[in-house]
Amino acid sequence: MADNTTDAPRATSNRSTTPHSSSFKDFISSGWAERTDATPAPREQAPFAAARRARISELYAGKRVIVPAGSAKVRSNDTDYPFRAHSAFAHLTGWGADAVSGSVLVLEPTDAGHEATLYFREAAGRDSDEFYANSDIGEFWTGARPSLAHVAADLGLATANLDRFAAVLDSVDADTVIVRDGDRDVTDQVDGRRLLAADSEKIGSIESLESDADVELARDLSELRLVKDAYEIQQMRLAVDATKKGFDDVIADMAQIVAHERGERLVEGTFNRRARADGNTVGYDTIAASGPHACILHWTRNDGAVVDGDVILLDAGIELESYYTADITRTLPIGGTFTEVQRRVYEAVREAADAAFAIVRPGIRFREIHAEAMKVIAARTAEWGLLPVSAEESLEPEAQYHRRYMVHGTSHHLGIDVHDCAQARRDLYLDGVLEPGMVFTIEPGLYFQPDDLTVPAEYRGIGVRIEDDILVTEAGAENLSIGIPRTADDVEAWVAGK
Q: Would 17 be classed as within a structural domain?
């Protein structure tokens, strides 16, 4: 990796060798072909993003709304993690994987509602030393940045250079609201100005600046995503399609995976290759949990062997350039065939998933999905003699013995975040009523830890989860991932056909 230069914000002057002579500066600033920046048509999501902004404008009449994209986060010293814009920023602008770090969306109140402006750092001219000497943002280092006009046309949104955002900050009043976790530096600046602008009786400390209005904004932006629009639903379908290819790739590579001492890493690498080829990246850290690792719900170390005779639980999803992600889990027999006990556990989990899916329709409450799956989990674990009481007794709120073998929930909303709408109110999420356009997972499981003495030895070390992505429709529901094999017979045929 190349060194940065002395003009970079995080410079390492002790190793920089960038020339500073006037001759060099004159030479590197000249002799470049003129660039043409054709004006693009608005991208497909532009009108959808505009409608989302309009909804927030209605909710925050008369208030300035600031939504930062965020900045790059340090991975190690002067190297950063790949930049990902804040989800609320992406949702309201339509800017996904091509978003520029440090950008800020501002909804400025007007008599007619709000005027939206996207502030970002535009490209520096060739007469500036930034383009070759700044390793954080110079195009020699990170590539060319888009122009204000290009982004304005692309997103259907007014744009301005980031240096003009200072004037917005100077206009901040006590009624300004901000997405607090978007960019800490911007939030601190807004807090300071709100403190100066506020009546001392209304706001007396920096701590109280984490106002109810900011909390409400985060909540409202989460709840705005509970029901997906047509563009979002299309993106979810594409993310699921790409994810299926990733699963196919893993199965195709199974012989190499089994042969490697850290086969789980190969599973992760194979899937991530597809994610980078067909999307932006993975939507979350891939869980490639083989053998007893399948009993660890969020196993992401992925450093174990993949052994013939075991099952491997693969929980993975591809995030598209738009940031929408799938979230799929399949549990595969590594050798191509389930053992009798593995099949018994697998089909019990599928029965729970199918029972939960069968009740999904507009008008039911979100929590009912989990309750339906738990009826099956309780029934099967009781049938196998694992519970100290009957299934009916275990389902009582004060009992819940069957939850020893499935401690997680059955569903979560899905979209631009893998755990989407996370700041929505309980009465609109867990206790919420399903509406057409909602997308969520159904993912029951059974996990018998290798040292669990409450289960017979033949069950120990078996972990199974089946996870699908579900769309609520006017008539009921659609399993978006139904094309990925689910029954024990179909999964065996899938793996055998590699």
A: no
Q: Find all residues with CB under 8 Å of 418, minimum gap 6, and list them.
A: 283, 284, 317, 325, 327
Q: How many domains in the chain?
A: 2
- Looking at the fold, whether 206 and 326 belong to one and the same domain comes out as no
Q: Looking at the structure, do residues 383 and 478 belong to the same domain, yes or no? A: yes
Tokens representing 287 are 């869980």
Domain holding 481: CATH number? 3.90.230.10
Nearest to 267 by CA among 252, 277, 257, 280: 257
Alpha helices in 125-211 (DSSP H): 130-133, 139-142, 148-155, 165-170, 184-197
**pTM for the structure as a whole:** 0.94
Our CA angle for 430, 431, 432, nearest 5°, is 95
Digit-coded pLDDT (tens) for 348-388: 999 999 999 999 999 999 999 999 999 999 999 999 999 99
Bridge partners, 284 (sequence order): none
- Tell which of 223, 238, 270 closes a domain: 223
Strand partners, 468: 442
What is the amino acid identity at position 412?
A: H
Tell how many helices (H) and how many strands (E) occur in the chain: 16, 17
Q: Within a domain: residue 391? A: yes
User: Which CATH number fits the domain that encloses residue 214?
Assistant: 3.40.350.10
Which residues span the domain enclosing 147?
22-26+39-223
| Domain final residue, candidates 164, 192, 223 | 223
The residue among 82, 435, 428 whose CA lies nearest residue 279 is 82
DSSP code at position 395: T
- Report the alpha-carbon distance of residue 158 to residue 150 in Å, rounded: 11
pLDDT digits (tens, 9 = 90+) for 26-74: 899 889 888 887 889 999 999 999 999 999 999 999 999 999 999 999 9
